[in-house]
């Protein structure tokens, strides 16, 4: 590979590390700054940070690969994600920003769940922290798989070496600069992803003699778009249900907690949704053009999830190739850093401080948070050493786990004043266990699991929601103080509008 490609990647790595150093000097004196950036993040950074941390390596590798293999039915996933992200901005973002302040300045999602019910260290805090650490370790490993595949495919390096390079850089700036570093690097990475997902499918499209030539070559492998509904009602619902996951993704909704004001959320929504629609169309287009390109030019492609990498190498000048490969790293690192920070925050605030040392000083707590980043990254790296795992499969399992365990809980805790602490625990446990059962229990013929029939987030979300309502109905009503805080939050939301 040309040296200019390596130079472009080196510049990208240096920029990320420089941002981490800048954040280290400006926002890590106290735990609030390290975890939430002092709740002073601009709407522009919030929007691109939420988008970049959401989309991860699957945007440039998993989704194009799915389009390559599954065809136009992948569009249903994209539609579900866009609708879910929009609903998240409208329903969750403003209420969570106000409520986490009203609930005794909760800094993490488990902290909010506990203080929402008037408890400092309720059982829901420990349980939700455990779920975050478990599923984020799995989720982080999916990003590292993408990083390893990138270095293996693009540079001919050993897959394990690629893992270590990826995790080393992302851990360095996350460990140093905390939330501000993660948000600022996400902003830069979001810009890079946007340009790359417009540029790559467009340049690849120019290799064809118009739209008819492209579609004719694509139809040799995948069905016409007119047949995208032929996959069946259950499969369509399962694809659209990806949107349900947004309500329970801690690494995304924590951005809403950190934005500088509730009034800024509308600006963030416009920017974030515009970014998402363009990039997700670009990812789908990359997969579609890839199908046609492979057929027309007889390109040998071992792994469909690497089509973006292949286009970057064969269609562009080496310097641009380096920029495009940096886009994949940007997608991977933005999500990994967010997940590492949220996991570390739960280990620090919701486990160590809550259980072992309530009076610890902020500087020591920040250092423990940094140790947490390193620990979670180490475990995720070990899990990612199996390169055969599909990126999309890893992401879909973790996405469903969070969506089912936390989605109904987040929504009902923000909208229903009669929800109680016991119902919150019931919702988390029932949702997570349903997802795990759906994924791993071989209850169907030939040892197949229920996830082969329906995406596990659907039963998990339903079971969790029903559990919360039933336990709240038959249990004790929340205290007057808790209900008063709920009503105060609604009043402040009305004032903000």
TrEMBL record:
<feature type="transmembrane region" description="Helical">
    <location>
        <begin position="6"/>
        <end position="24"/>
    </location>
</feature>
<protein>
    <recommendedName>
        <fullName>Sodium/proline symporter</fullName>
    </recommendedName>
</protein>
<keyword id="KW-0769">Symport</keyword>
<keyword id="KW-0029">Amino-acid transport</keyword>
<keyword id="KW-0812">Transmembrane</keyword>
<keyword id="KW-1003">Cell membrane</keyword>
<dbReference type="Pfam" id="PF00474">
    <property type="entry name" value="SSF"/>
</dbReference>
<keyword id="KW-0739">Sodium transport</keyword>
<dbReference type="InterPro" id="IPR038377">
    <property type="entry name" value="Na/Glc_symporter_sf"/>
</dbReference>
<dbReference type="InterPro" id="IPR018212">
    <property type="entry name" value="Na/solute_symporter_CS"/>
</dbReference>
<keyword id="KW-0406">Ion transport</keyword>
<dbReference type="InterPro" id="IPR001734">
    <property type="entry name" value="Na/solute_symporter"/>
</dbReference>
<feature type="transmembrane region" description="Helical">
    <location>
        <begin position="275"/>
        <end position="295"/>
    </location>
</feature>
<keyword id="KW-1133">Transmembrane helix</keyword>
<comment type="function">
    <text>Catalyzes the sodium-dependent uptake of extracellular L-proline.</text>
</comment>
<feature type="transmembrane region" description="Helical">
    <location>
        <begin position="122"/>
        <end position="139"/>
    </location>
</feature>
<keyword id="KW-0915">Sodium</keyword>
<keyword id="KW-0472">Membrane</keyword>
<keyword id="KW-0813">Transport</keyword>
<feature type="transmembrane region" description="Helical">
    <location>
        <begin position="423"/>
        <end position="441"/>
    </location>
</feature>
<feature type="transmembrane region" description="Helical">
    <location>
        <begin position="75"/>
        <end position="92"/>
    </location>
</feature>
<dbReference type="InterPro" id="IPR011851">
    <property type="entry name" value="Na/Pro_symporter"/>
</dbReference>
<feature type="transmembrane region" description="Helical">
    <location>
        <begin position="159"/>
        <end position="180"/>
    </location>
</feature>
<feature type="transmembrane region" description="Helical">
    <location>
        <begin position="225"/>
        <end position="247"/>
    </location>
</feature>
<comment type="similarity">
    <text>Belongs to the sodium:solute symporter (SSF) (TC 2.A.21) family.</text>
</comment>
<feature type="transmembrane region" description="Helical">
    <location>
        <begin position="365"/>
        <end position="385"/>
    </location>
</feature>
<feature type="transmembrane region" description="Helical">
    <location>
        <begin position="187"/>
        <end position="205"/>
    </location>
</feature>
<dbReference type="InterPro" id="IPR050277">
    <property type="entry name" value="Sodium:Solute_Symporter"/>
</dbReference>
<feature type="transmembrane region" description="Helical">
    <location>
        <begin position="307"/>
        <end position="332"/>
    </location>
</feature>
<feature type="transmembrane region" description="Helical">
    <location>
        <begin position="397"/>
        <end position="416"/>
    </location>
</feature>
<feature type="transmembrane region" description="Helical">
    <location>
        <begin position="453"/>
        <end position="474"/>
    </location>
</feature>
<keyword id="KW-0997">Cell inner membrane</keyword>
């Amino acid at each position: 590979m040309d040296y200019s490609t390596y130079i472009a990647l080196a510049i990208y790595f240096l920029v990320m590390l420089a941002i981490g150093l800048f954040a280290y000097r400006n926002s890590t004196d106290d735990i609030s700054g390290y975890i939430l950036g002092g709740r002073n993040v601009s709407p522009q950074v919030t929007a691109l940070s939420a988008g970049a941390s959401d989309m991860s390596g699957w945007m440039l590798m998993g989704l194009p690969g799915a389009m390559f293999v599954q065809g136009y039915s992948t569009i249903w996933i994209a539609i579900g994600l866009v609708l879910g992200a929009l609903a998240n901005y409208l329903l969750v973002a403003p209420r969570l920003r106000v409520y986490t302040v009203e609930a005794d300045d909760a800094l993490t999602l488990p902290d909010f769940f506990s203080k929402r019910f008037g408890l400092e260290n309720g059982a829901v805090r420990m349980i939700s922290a455990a779920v975050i650490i478990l599923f984020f370790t799995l989720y982080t490993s999916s990003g590292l798989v993408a990083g390893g595949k990138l270095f293996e495919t693009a540079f001919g390096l050993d897959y394990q070496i690629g893992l270590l390079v990826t995790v080393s850089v992302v851990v360095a700036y996350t460990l140093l600069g905390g939330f501000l570093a993660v948000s600022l690097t996400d902003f830069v990475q979001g810009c890079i992803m946007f340009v790359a997902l417009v540029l790559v499918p467009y340049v690849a499209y120019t290799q064809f003699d118009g739209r008819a030539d492209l579609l004719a070559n694509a139809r040799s492998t995948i069905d016409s778009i007119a047949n995208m509904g032929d996959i069946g009602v259950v499969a369509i619902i399962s694809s659209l249900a990806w949107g349900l996951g947004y309500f329970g993704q801690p690494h995304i909704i924590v951005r809403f907690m950190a934005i500088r004001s509730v009034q800024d959320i509308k600006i963030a929504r416009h920017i974030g949704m515009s970014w998402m629609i363009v990039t997700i169309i670009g990812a789908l287009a990359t997969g579609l053009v890839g199908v046609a390109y492979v057929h027309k030019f007889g390109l040998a492609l071992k792994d469909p999830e690497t089509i973006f990498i292949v286009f970057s190498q064969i269609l562009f000048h080496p310097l641009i190739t380096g920029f495009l490969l940096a886009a994949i790293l940007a997608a991977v690192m933005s999500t990994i850093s967010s997940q590492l920070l949220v996991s570390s925050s739960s280990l620090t605030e919701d486990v160590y401080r809550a259980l072992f040392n309530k009076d610890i000083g902020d500087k020591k707590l920040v250092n423990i948070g940094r140790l947490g980043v390193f620990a979670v990254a180490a475990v995720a790296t070990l899990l990612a050493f199996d390169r055969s795992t599909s990126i999309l499969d890893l992401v879909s399992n973790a996405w469903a786990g969070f969506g089912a365990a936390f989605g109904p809980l987040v929504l009902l805790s923000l909208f229903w004043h009669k929800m109680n602490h016991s119902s919150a625990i019931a919702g988390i446990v029932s949702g997570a266990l349903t997802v795990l059962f759906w994924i791993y229990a071989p209850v169907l013929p030939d040892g197949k699991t229920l996830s082969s029939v329906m995406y596990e987030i659907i039963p998990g979300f339903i079971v969790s929601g029903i559990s919360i309502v039933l336990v709240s109905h038959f249990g004790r009503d929340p205290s007057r103080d808790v209900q008063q805080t709920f009503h105060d939050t609604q009043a402040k939301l009305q004032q903000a509008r």
